[in-house]
């Protein structure tokens, strides 16, 4: 079997062939074994066919994106390499094997069937056949599903599934955060962009009861990497967060949500979580008021229009101790009600003022 790159999810295929067409009187040997490399994230698969025929025969594989041929060696073996779009190999399909030696020829139809493997998609990996087992990242957690007795090996831990609902897999979020970088967002410059080249692909092995162990890789989206960081940062309200440089003077700002927190800003030029000395946690509250009754100029319908203001209370925590250093409220300006409006005006607290407050707390350490 050909083994692809480290990030490859390897598909093994069985070629089941029988002579169905060609010259009935021909005794020309023509059979094939096939393997395929299916690299994770690549659109094209490479099929390797070992064709057994007679010395000097021209051996070809058809039915792929291209027809590929090779001349058999003195032992009657020809190695043919062909390529196909990966999606074409997700289901059983027919390939054609042609062997030609002088005036003799033989054609064999080979039914290609996929052996069990792990199929990787963004933020998830799952078995290609039933009973299905899968591992996915959801809200910063790694969750696994599968029949009872299935084992999942991930990040140095082997977990046995009980069947039914998802099982949360052990994962060191602090160690993961230490491998992440922070930069300005590409679309909204105030939003932190979280990345981790070493976490773009993480290997996982799934073994179902009575089945072979299958190995593949989970490919992460940028949003999922950020969700791991947010899961880790949410712990600051309960105690210190491990790691960090003793000379750190940077910080991040997160917004408290019903479940966990969401990254909102990085402070200054903080380039990684090792640079984070303080974490500002914003708790938002909403104020509402009335603009009054407006009359639609076209329909003359009367509409009540209200305004909304989002205020923020920021508490700055020291990463090393988990201690609350300072708290300040930031009120949003009352939205302006114009003489002619169609929708409710809205305002929010000033993000730049929040960043300055958190930065000031970091400098005082």
Q: Which sequence of strands runs across the widest sheet?
A: 5-4-7-8-1-2-3-6
The parts where pLDDT drops under 50 for at least 5 residues are: 1-25
Which shape, going by the Cα principal axes?
elongated
CA radius of gyration is 30 Å
Distance between the termini: 59 Å
Largest sheet: 8 strands, antiparallel
Helix share bin: under 10%
How large is the share of residues in beta strands?
Answer: over 45%
Mean pLDDT: 84
What does the oligomeric state look like here? single chain
Continuous helix count: 3
Structural class: mainly beta
N-to-C order of helices and strands = EEEEEEEEEEEEEEEHEEEEHEEEEEEH
Total count of domains = 3
Strands, total number: 25
SSE topology:
Blueprint: E1 11-22, E2 31-37, E3 44-52, E4 58-62, E5 68-71, E6 77-85, E7 93-101, E8 104-114, E9 118-121, E10 124-127, E11 134-138, E12 141-145, E13 151-154, E14 157-160, E15 167-168, H1 173-178, E16 181-184, E17 192-195, E18 201-207, E19 213-219, H2 222-233, E20 250-256, E21 261-267, E22 276-295, E23 302-318, E24 324-330, E25 346-348, H3 351-363
Parallel strand pairs: 20-22, 23-25
Antiparallel strand pairs: 1-2, 1-8, 2-3, 3-6, 4-5, 4-7, 7-8, 9-10, 10-11, 11-12, 12-15, 13-14, 13-18, 16-17, 18-19, 20-21, 22-23, 23-24
Structural description of this entry:
The protein has 365 residues and is mainly β. It folds into three domains: 11-114, Immunoglobulin-like, CATH 2.60.40; 118-220 and 227-232, no CATH class; 239-363, no CATH class. It has three helices and 25 strands. It has an eight-stranded antiparallel beta sheet with strand order 5-4-7-8-1-2-3-6, with no helix packed on it. A hairpin with a 5-residue loop joins strand 18 (201-207) and strand 19. The longest helix has 13 residues, at 351-363. The protein is elongated, with a radius of gyration of 30 Å. Residues 1-25 have low confidence and may be disordered.
